[in-house]
Amino acid sequence: xxxVTQIPAALSVPEGENLVLNCSFTDSAIYNxxxxxxxxxxxxxxxxxxxxxxxxxxxxxLNASLDKSSGRSTLYIAASQPGDSATYLxxxxxxxxxxxxxxxxxxxxxxx
Amino acid sequence: xxxxxxxxxxxxxxxxxxxxxKCEQHLGHNAMYWYKQSAKKPxxxxxxxxxxxxxxxxxxxxRFSPECPNSSHLFLHLxxxxxxxxxxxxxxxxxxxDxxxxxxxxxxxxxxxx
Lengths: 112, 114
Fold this sequence. Notes:
The structure holds 2 protein chains of 2 kinds.
Chain A: E1 4-7, E2 10-14, E3 19-25, E4 30-38, E5 44-51, E6 56-59, E7 62-67, E8 72-77, E9 86-94, E10 100-102, E11 106-111
Chain B: E1 4-7, E2 10-13, E3 18-25, E4 31-37, E5 44-50, E6 53-57, E7 64-70, E8 73-79, E9 87-94, E10 104-105, E11 109-113
Parallel strand pairs in B: 2-11
Antiparallel strand pairs in B: 1-3, 3-8, 4-5, 4-9, 5-6, 7-8, 9-10, 9-11
């Protein structure tokens, strides 16, 4: 059974820092991995989608990497801003399922 | 706005009430999903529809009843809910069930059962 873990559960950094959020999964037979952002009480905004054949994806200040064999993905945020404060969720889609399996998220606070 | 619209944004209902949640997308997507997000738990898939046909029912109690009248609209009918059903209910869509497509989520309906 696939399990997705995100570390740390919460993170507080001063503005301007570069930071890394981690996501690990126990079953490497994934089809893709997606990073989302969720603001308090709101829905999910898709940030980056990485197919299993890809190693990384970039969008602006965000860079996501995928190491399928070791069951890990990282989300790198460069030059963090207070507006980046949110919960970041990673989710994997298995080879044989429509289902996204989510981690519990990392709550990020970027202090001005 | 992501292109997936959910109404209402907030709903408070008694355990004997009947209510419905609505989801609408005009992205041209053919697959739609209901997810549940409870406090301190990861998101859980509830239902999956592809081209208006239900393809997955993830062991959800019968007090939750989905309906997909067309590929742009998805409903979740609620009746005789329990307080533990209070959660954020999220609708999502994808271009198809094909595994290569990412999901687009709505903003959710915050449901409180009293």
